[in-house]
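User: Hi! Is it possible to get a structure for several chains at once, not just one? Here's what I have:
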Amino acid sequence: MFKTLKQILSQIRYATIALVVAVSIFLIVIWGSNIKLIVSVFSSQAVIFEKIYFLFNLLGSIVTNFTITSAIITIVISLLFGINICLLIYLVHFSQAGNFNKINSALSFGGLFSGLFGIGCATCGTFVLSSLLGLFDLTGVLLFLPFKGEEIGFLGIVLLIFSIYFSLKKITELKICKL
Amino acid sequence: MENQNSKTILTVPVAVIVAGILIAGAVFFSRLDNREQVNIETDKNTKTTLLEKMYPINEKDHILGNPDAPIKIVEYSDAECPFCKVFHNTMHQIMNEYGKSGQVAWIYRHFPIDDRHPIKARKEAVASECVNQIGGNIAFWKFIDRFFELTPSNNQTDIEVVIPQIVKELGINETTFNSCYNSDKYDEHIENDFQNAVQTGGRGTPWSIVVAPNGKTFPIDGAQPISVVKQIIEVALQEK
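Assistant: Yes, the chains can be modeled jointly so their relative placement is included. Here is the combined structure:
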């Protein structure tokens, strides 16, 4: 199964898709958690070069604004989601439309959703999940979890790994001539 | 064949669970959107943005640097938050670079996150206010600096040991301090700071607002790296 993954990712087209999706998810997490600041800077009198440079500068917040665990979860989820999308595109391309596995894509997006609930900017009290629970005065729920919500990020990783596993299984089946 | 059937049976509940997660997520997000829309609507009616709800810098505030500085950084902080500790050092570096020339003033307000740091964060805020009352603004900043230096964050601080130790180091009258510390004199002040942080959009600590010379505001969520803070200051300095 790893051989199949290696074969797919060694094709420039699919490796590029995986990389672009992974980087996009990573940027969404970093920039998304600073969107108000980005809007403020972009609506300022600063020159455009300075504004673009600011976006790159913000990437450093993965070091200062995240716990080690949440930084690792963010990077791993980004990479796994990139691989997932790449495999789903491969499946769509090489199988008939009817064979497209909806469960795989559901697992994939479920993994991304749950992963993103558990990560986000991890400053005190600002996990995406705690922000959402805060809307319903449910932030206390997180205090009962040993890692205060980071386990949702781990759930996302597990879902994404399942999704990759099922996709690879499906791709391997495609390569077999059935009776 | 039997094995395959069991797998097929399993896929249905898995799909249901995943669909449930997705629907729950969609509901969460749609409700979030509704809330935001309500807020925006309110803001349009009152013609203010969330950041403009920051109450003006006043005599109750703790200011480091030139009070008339063109750039003011208002920080809402929690003494038990590890990210506040990191950002505190960042802000000292900023003040070394921009504070001495009078370009930046740093204003410290309290934002104790009770859910994460119950009791201790608020008590530490009270202690800092009592030190300020007895020893003045310089003593306040020394207290905060020393507190972040000595404590492990994440509600692990032994406040019964650390607070008296710092109070003693600073030469604060202990009897007067204890009388203030055990009273509810500063509860309202701290709660006002907390509420104002929330009103301005703060959802975690540290939460900071950079105010440019023309009043334009830049929200800083969390412990951003020094390069980001410096760039915001440079951008804000152009806003005249």
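Residues 2-174 of chain A form one domain. Chain A has one domain: 2-174.

User: Great, thank you!
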